[in-house]
């Protein structure tokens, strides 16, 4: 851990962006930062800032892989914006809210509306799956066409191109988000309770990752999928996934502590090319922290405005952020 007096800073490398409303998420389309706003608009921030209306109403979820930005709104639309600025309508639910969206390998796209999940490939009609409840989260497996869906009392693993029943992963409670490890051996969900739950797929072994003082609202894989970084505590909690058993029986790494007691991490983002994370806090503080020794770089001073969005550019040389109060910025490293 680096003390405040010793901590280097990159505050002077931040270009402010006028969001003027809550920033729901941050992404990068190529070299341009993308800020997704509560009103249904996005801001594309490169050499200049462009504000683009997408949905007639709020955006409920967004996903981006660097080449495509996918959004779902309460207007029932699923939209896709590419790096050239071309906007496509992927789906119109007829007014049913699009709760979750996800991008997968080989151009696959997923979304959920009501108690149904959908998967579309570049060719052919979308396929759908009935769910036991509304989807809390969607995540594609890194390889192959397989979708993990979090919902009430567990998760479902769906092969859209394979006949037969999907795989059910059961655990009582409300599951709000889902992610899959890089080696495809583990599925992890965030829960309404202040904990994570996971399954080792080869044998169905359960993993309960608890001890958080608050709900885990943000998670991100670090370089190579070695750790799963999470919010919900007064410092970033990193669960190890490099060993055979993942986090089972292991102690998590804790880095990037809050400046004041009781302040929680609200956003985490793993560096795409180095063992570093960015951590944003409920008081507006943003730290860049090296995993191996906890060394810190100050990116943003706390100002009482909670960080709600945080993302690295693919080359690891820029970070975009946004806050609940409508402040935002783009830092170059």
CATH fold-type name of the largest domain:
Methylamine Dehydrogenase, Chain H
For the largest sheet, list the strands in their spatial order.
Answer: 14-15-16-17-18-19
The whole-number mean of residue pLDDT values reads: 95
Euclidean distance between termini CA atoms: 21 Å
The secondary-structure element order is EEEEEEEEEEEEEEEEEEEEEEEEEEEEEE
Tally of contiguous helical segments: 0
Question: Which architecture of the largest domain does the CATH hierarchy give at level 2?
Answer: 7 Propeller
Give the biggest beta sheet. Answer: 6 strands, antiparallel
CATH superfamily of the largest domain: YVTN repeat-like/Quinoprotein amine dehydrogenase
Strand content: over 45%
Helix content: under 10%
The class by helix and strand makeup works out as: mainly beta
Nearest-angstrom radius of gyration?
Answer: 19 Å
Helices and strands in order:
Layout: E1 14-18, E2 23-29, E3 32-37, E4 41-45, E5 49-53, E6 59-64, E7 68-73, E8 77-82, E9 87-92, E10 98-103, E11 109-113, E12 116-120, E13 127-130, E14 137-140, E15 147-158, E16 167-180, E17 186-191, E18 196-200, E19 205-209, E20 219-221, E21 227-230, E22 236-240, E23 253-255, E24 265-270, E25 276-281, E26 286-290, E27 296-300, E28 307-312, E29 318-323, E30 327-332
Antiparallel strand pairs: 1-30, 2-3, 3-4, 4-5, 6-7, 7-8, 8-9, 10-11, 11-12, 12-13, 14-15, 15-16, 16-17, 17-18, 18-19, 20-21, 21-22, 22-23, 24-25, 25-26, 26-27, 28-29, 29-30
């Amino acid at each position: 851990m680096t003390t405040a007096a010793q901590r280097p800073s990159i505050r002077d490398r931040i270009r402010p962006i006028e969001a003027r409303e809550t920033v729901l998420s941050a992404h990068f389309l190529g070299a341009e930062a993308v800020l997704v706003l509560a009103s249904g608009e996005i801001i594309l921030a490169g050499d200049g800032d462009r504000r683009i209306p997408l949905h007639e109403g709020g955006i409920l979820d967004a996903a981006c892989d660097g080449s495509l930005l996918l959004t779902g709104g309460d207007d029932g639309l699923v939209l896709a914006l590419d790096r050239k600025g071309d906007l496509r309508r992927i789906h119109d639910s007829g007014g049913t809210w699009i709760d979750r969206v996800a991008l997968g390998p080989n151009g696959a796209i997923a979304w959920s509306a009501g108690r149904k999940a959908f998967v579309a490939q570049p060719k052919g009609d979308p396929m759908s799956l009935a769910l036991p409840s509304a989807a809390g989260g969607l995540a594609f497996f890194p390889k192959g066409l397989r979708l993990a869906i979090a919902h009430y009392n567990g998760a479902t693993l769906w092969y859209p191109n394979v006949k037969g029943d999907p795989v059910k992963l059961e655990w009582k409670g409300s599951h709000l988000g889902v992610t899959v490890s890089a080696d495809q051996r583990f599925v992890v969900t965030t829960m309404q309770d202040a904990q994570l739950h996971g399954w080792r797929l080869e044998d169905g072994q359960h993993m309960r990752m608890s001890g958080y003082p608050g709900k885990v609202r943000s998670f991100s894989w670090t370089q190579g999928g070695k750790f799963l970084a999470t919010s919900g505590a007064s410092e970033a909690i990193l669960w190890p996934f490099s060993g055979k058993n993942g986090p089972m029986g292991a102690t998590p790494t804790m880095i990037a502590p809050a400046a004041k007691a009781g302040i929680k991490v609200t956003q985490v983002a793993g560096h795409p090319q180095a063992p570093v994370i960015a951590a944003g806090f409920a008081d507006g503080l943003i730290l860049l922290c090296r995993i191996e020794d906890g060394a810190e770089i100050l990116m943003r001073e706390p100002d009482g405005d909670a960080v709600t969005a945080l993302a690295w550019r693919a080359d690891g040389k820029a970070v975009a952020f946004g806050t609940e109060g409508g402040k935002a910025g783009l830092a170059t490293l």
